[in-house]
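Reopening closed ticket. The problem is back. First fold of the pair:
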Amino acid sequence: RRPERYEEDVVLEQLLYTGMLHVAAIRKNGYPNKIPHESFLQLYRCLLPKNFKITSSWTGKETCTNVLQALPGLIRADWQVGNTKVFYRQSVFVALEDARRTRINVASLLIQRVWRGYAARRDYTRKRNLVLFMQRCFKRHVFRARYLKKLAAIPVLQAYTRGFLARKMCKRIRQDRINAEEEERLKRLNELKTTGEEKLRTALQDAEVRQESAEKQVAGLETRLGKLESDLAAMKEREDNAVKIITQCKNKLKVAPASDQDHLLKIIRENELAAEQLVAAKAR
């Protein structure tokens, strides 16, 4: 004999002489696996068909018997039900464990699939909401910039339009007056031709005086037009300053503390009132 050396013939002979082979045969022919009723139901209830219902009036023995009979693929001679325990052979144990393991694997896969679907939908919803929020912020920024640009261009367009209309009206009035004076002068010249040289000379002098008066009036109108244009430019500058102050106050209002917000709101209202008054003055 030497340590760590296995001799199959010697070991088999020893097991035969000690009776272990008979014990294994007896155990194999009997019911080596045993389990209490409650543990059996807790382990293998998941293998029952969907249409099988356990009645509360059944005893533990009756319940286990009905459950084993309802499970397919089990031989009646391979299991027995006692008063407190269930006895079954190795073939039944292997079949029950394989079926239970398969059912648990299927349920685990279903749970994993549902959880992964939920996680994917949650991540997709979160990312979609973030994308929509970014799109809303970007669109708001773009539209606000366009609106402010158009709002700043409106007074300029109004000033140019009013100046163009005023110049056009002044030019028409001046041309009409010149035409009327020319007609009057020609008419008087004709009258002077008929009345004589003296009357003609007097009429010419009167015409010259009137022409000078007309030129003075035209010069006054031009001076008034220049003053009007300068007033419009000053109003435009004041209105731009008011709009600039309002924009700066609104930007400061977003980050200003609560103690300064009333003062900023007061400044905004004053500048808005001044801008409205300027618009009304330009309309007049």
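Second fold of the pair, where the issue appears:
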Amino acid sequence: AVQSHSKQETMKTTSALLLACAGSAAAFAPQASNKVSTALAADLESIGGATAPANNFDPLRLSQLGSDETLAWFRAAELKHSRVAMLATTGYMVQAAGIHFPGMLSSDVSFESLSGMNPFDAWEAVPLAGKAQIIGTIFIAELSTESKGTHYTKGGPLPEIVFPKFDFSGVNPETLEKKRCRELNNGRLAMIGIMSYISACNVPGSVPFLNGNPWFP
């Protein structure tokens, strides 16, 4: 039974990593500026977001897969996954530090109990109604960002969800581009970070850096 449970956890971890890698296929292709050119003559030199020391790091030539619309889709996927990964990594570290919401998530599940579980077990412990609310919120967010005006694969702006809405029109373009590059670099690191946490939780010893690390329970 123990061996079966171990195999199941390993399969779960492998599946999660594959999904994360697929969603961030262009994780090292630099970030686009706020708008792709209307002609979508997109390549690594024109799409923006390259930063030192790697600059246009694309050894697998993912940027050459498909059309210019494909590259724009890669960039949008990378940006979304970067932002989600930053939230996930921060949330993991906050809970690992013993900080969590007070009270109960449901009649028999407390936030305190969830904070002591690994990510997969915590998700399994969430009641079906809670899972439905989370997935429903994600669906609404995706629908909102994908249905605004001209689609980003057709030359429109990249998807964005900001509450409250910020006005960046007064920001110097050079400064704004630097901040976009920083956001992407932080997001790329966060994607590696959250995948490392999940791996270490479900396959002990799989991330040597986290072995015995006081920041990782």
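Update: turned out to be a display glitch only; the data is intact. The first helix runs from residue 2 to 23. Confidence is low (pLDDT under 50) at residues 1-41. Please close again.
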